[in-house]
User: What shape does this take?
Amino acid sequence: MALPMSTAAAPAGPVRAVSARHFLRLKLRVMGNSFRGQGWRLAMFIGGALVGLWFAASGFFLFAVPGMTGNGRYAMLVAAGGGGLLVLGWLLLPLVFFGVDETLDPARFALLPLPRRTLVLGLFAAALVSVSALAMLIATFGLVLTAWRLGGWSAGVVAVVGVVAGLLLCVAASRAVTSAFASMLRSRRVRDLAAVLLAVTAALLGPLQIFGLAALRETDWDRLTGVATVIGWTPLGAPWTAGIDVAQGRVWAAPVKLLITVVALGALLAWWSRSLESAMVGAVSSGRTPARRGATGGAVAQLFPRITGRMRRDRFGALVARDARYWWRDARRRANLITIAVVGIFVPVMTNLGGAGFAGGEQGMTLSTSDSSPVVVTISMLFVGVLASVTLANQFGFDGSAYAANVVAGVPGRVELRARMTAFSLYVLPMLTVVAVALSLLLGHPGWIGLTAGSMVATYGAGLAVSSFVSVLGAYSLPETSNPFAMNTGAGMAKGLLTLLAMVVAAVAGVPMVVAAALLGDAWLWLALPVGAAYGLGAALLGAYLAGDVLDRRQPELLATVTPRR
Amino acid sequence: MTGEHSALALRGLAKRFDGTIAVASVDLDVPAGSFYGLLGPNGAGKTTTLSMAVGLLRPDAGSAWVLGHDVWRDPVAAKRLLGVMPDGMRLFDRLTGAELLAYNGLLRGMEPAVVDQRAAELLDVLALGDAGRTLVVDYSAGMKKKIGLACALLHGPRVLVLDEPFEAVDPVSAALIRDILTRYAAGGGTVVFSSHVMEVVERLCSHVAILAGGAIKRVGTIGEVRGDRSLEQVFVEVVGGRTATGEELSWLSR
Assistant: This one.
């Protein structure tokens, strides 16, 4: 194997084995090159890294609290609960917010003679090189400190193994889930299945949450430790609690828990490996449509989908029609729509019914006895509105270089932004209406429909305005892969932060609705809808007006930033 | 710019990326009604030059006029006269061919009835009618070029700027594209296109400019540039290519 690699090597000569090390070096090289001559990228990366470190440090201290106070009573709770939440975060957050860093696109390796095992392990190793993985490792080392303080060095060593295994588990989980979900969305046959699957998951999470809160209400913290013990025996908690077990004298539990982790890890990698294959092949002909028959009417009639109704057949109409078609045909955008639908239903139900759980006192847990207040409802609606609108924060990135067509045609910025808002709203507004109505009925307050819808529409409109600016000034290119969750090199965290910033600004813009709900009392129940709708519409139009001006001045620059570098 | 305007006039266009000069001060005058070939090896700056000329890429210095309208100061008027087919840019490829044409037509402010009629004709002539409801993303490379050309032609521009219209196109489609462009030029339109295929340029063009290393090396009518040699000989000489290898790559033949 020590054959020197010279340029004159015969093509049929001995082949050197490829190991994960090569993938690591490749990833670092690609990351390094992507910063070259792009100062802002480097700055964003460093900014993201600093924030990551801050989170890591706070996580470390949280995990280390039981050890530093020398109080082992809640060690299990902290380890299983905190660790479990982290795993869930790695599992779900990439789907909702951040995407996965796909610096090494699996499709690029399709032509290389690599065994699948090598490929999976290599890509896995490369995936471990990220700010978030490092931050995670630092944070969870707080558990090592806890285990060491409580149970000496042997517990500490076990905790180290557990924490590292846990990190591997988290990264594998995020890769496997995004990859599987991506390939599901790619295939048109099962794309509806994916939506159903997500909806069912969300529907299951709701009751689980209520059960959890019910348990929390009926029991004290010690009983909760019992729950933590149970979680500790699932892959969610096993890696994190192994060290605590040793510290608390259950030495036999540690190897079993580590075994659970390893088995889960293996299963996830196998799952990933299967969907990876479809990702590699899928890139060649992504989302091939059957040649549909029955093209009726002229070209213009074909362009306008039914959802646009009797919209004028002019420039604005064409922009809306094209964007509306894209929200459905582009896997990346469709994934966003599905996310809004699922989270938009799940979060309000969770916060409001969960709030009932918190406040319910000794009464039994029935869904109708909710003590959710107009303020809580308004805040949760605020979140949904913001979440929906922030989807447009990189609306030009979705288009990529295809945006050139609009630049060449000289589309005025204001028309462009208004059309994009309209097309997106064609899908989102009905969805938001359903959420508002369903939530009001579920809470047993049909009279709150105006309140829920009004506050949601207000924040949605304000959020659209904010997103217009972010999309013009903070646009970034998305890689041209078949994975709708793929992000570009190292930019994931920084871009996620930009999105979060947009969310915060949009949420602040929605605060008047909360204040009104708190101060105006019953009158507000009737005023909320007209006032909210006017506020949202006004904000959105103002945003398009102002951001459109900016867009007019920097169309070519925007095109350059959303064009993927090849 | 007064009196008789050039169809396309470039003055001192320059662009640098990350410290490397992509295009260094390009001057070019494309006479109205000409069939203009922009020749150059890969990486010569053809795409950069054309992108700056049509308003897709902001130049570091210099300016561009389309029939007397400044592309960067008065983009609306200039872009109305222009039909552009960029290279390396995606189309809105999740639309069908007909939808894409309708989109571009309406974007240009055309009447829906006119769009319908012209789109049907273009799809028919370019033999894209059979594709039916196939999305453009599933088109072959040649079909993509053809639909791109159709999008550029749809609004009846006075000046047509095409980046590599013959790249990755099979001979049948290439012949079709050639015919359409010839007819367009014969009808008084001006065509500017980039290429590195000598035969096409030699057969079609009335004027040629050779671009290498971000600067214009030769410019004039095809007769002036070619002289008594073949265009390929002039091109290789200007660009400074190397010919036939001897010792190297011996392992290729075993």
